[in-house]
Amino acid sequence: MKKVVTILLILFSLSCWSQQPAWEGKIFGKDKALHFTASMLITMTAIETAKDWNVRNPELIGVVVGFSVGLAKEFLYDEHQSSRDLLADFGGCVLAIPLNRFINKKIEKVYKKKGWN
Asked: Any residues with CB less than 8 A from the CB of 45 and at least 6 apart, and which?
């Protein structure tokens, strides 16, 4: 399951990176889409890893890990810090939770339908 999520999000981030969206501007742009997508990918991977380790509140752990990576990147790597980048990071972390739940439900349906329980 983690492989499917990881592959889908990597493909989405590559599509955002290779094309310049029509809505490119100061607030929205390729950089913000990359921040958003990378945060979603990291958060979803952290959630599933925490579930594998039977950690309590895996979604909270995932959001903390995803946003921490965004904070570290913003303050340690970038020359000019941007609150919009952090907002895109946080949005990606928060929206990763319902997307992860949705994907897990769909995968469970397929497993039950095929009898792979």
From this structure: 2, 5, 6, 62
Structure tokens, 32: 């913000």
Burial call 39-54: b when 16+ CB within 10 Å, e when fewer:
bbbbbbbbbbebbeee
- C-alpha to C-alpha distance for 78 and 112, rounded to whole angstroms: 46
- Reported as a pLDDT band with limits 50, 70 and 90, residue 12 is low
Q: How many CB atoms neighbour CB 97 within 10 A? A: 18
Q: How many CB atoms lie within 10 A of CB 55?
A: 14
pTM of this prediction? 0.76
